Amino acid sequence: MAFPTETVYGLGADATNDKAVASIYAAKGRPQFNPLIIHLPDAHAARDLVEWNETAQSLADQFWPGPLTLILPRKKDCHVSLLASAGMDTLAVRVPHHPVALELLKAVALPIAAPSANASGKLSPTTPVHVAESLGDKVDMILAGGKAQVGVESTVLNLTSKVPTILRHGGVTKEKLEQLLGKVDVADGNSDAPLSPGMLASHYAPNIPVRLNASSVNADEALLAFGPDRFIRGGKARLNLSERGDMEEAAANLFAMMRQLDKPDHTGIAVMEIPNVGLGAAINDRLKRASTPA
Ligand code: TXA
Ligand code: MG
User: Fold this and answer.
1) What are the CA-CA distances from residue 43 to residues 46, 58, 138, 141, 236 (Å)?
2) Is the per-residue pLDDT at 18 higher than 80?
3) How far is the centre of ligand 2, averaged over its atoms, from the C-alpha of 185 (Å)?
4) DSSP type of residue 75
5) Can you give the pTM of this predicted structure?
6) 269-271 and 210-211: which strand pairing?
7) Which-ligand-closest: CA of 91?
8) Is 2 touching ligand 1 by the criterion CB < 6 Å?
9) Which ligand is nearest to the CA of 35?
10) Could you tell me if the CB of 271 is within 6 A of ligand 1?
11) 20 to 30 A Cα–Cα from 258, which one of 7, 81, 193, 267?
């Protein structure tokens, strides 16, 4: 459901549930799986999910609740969906400064994954009416909480680099961050645009080759199937993204299954053809990146 934050309205779902997260991408019509921000009621909840450090603590003390998102390594036992972080080893966490959002987060007692509640490529919504206009009946419920006060998205700050690096400018300025941290970098390229997560070194790519549009599998390969796969014989291992050809189910399984098949005793992962409809476009985008050698 859509809910208000101080920056823009978010389209939220249970971050620990792959299918719920897949439904976010489906509703937005995103052509890619951009990693999502995980919303939490307080810093304690964030510390359960990511490798916390002193810098994170001092930033949280000063700016949370508020429009600052921190990128930190996922904990080993982190139960947030891999789809929510687009297969990355890091996680974006933030505590929104809005009474309705905080009440919601405390009531559900679950991390909530939420991008801005607009159709992909459209303006971010700052009122519940914007959300209704952009997403209509694609969203089950809109929790109305007035006009978003900040109106621009949160600042995304990467704390996994040597020098803290702004990946996206937003509600907390570089100057404010520098007052606390000293030196702060801004990611290369157009500094007003988010650094494409596909370009981040930490973006997960399998260690073994990925072969697309496979109609057969070699004896030492693993097969990542989609739809009926009985007619393909062999392979060392096989998992099926969705036997019934359901795109949301396939998206929900994508990153977890790729990791499961990414074993040194497989010579590669053969992936069956996936139709480029609906979430298929995002799935194929990700698979294409995964199949391109680094
Ligand atoms: O103010 C906001 O941040 C709003 C409200 C709803 O909280 N949310 C928002 O989400 O703007 P979204 O999905 O539109 O933008 C998330 C940004 C993207 O630029 C994405 O690339 C980045 O955060 N991001 C998320 N996880 C990341 C990660 N692990 N590493 C690097 N960047 C990440
Ligand atoms: Mg957005």
Assistant:
1) 5, 11, 31, 27, 44
2) yes
3) 22
4) P
5) 0.88
6) parallel
7) 1
8) no
9) 1
10) no
11) 193
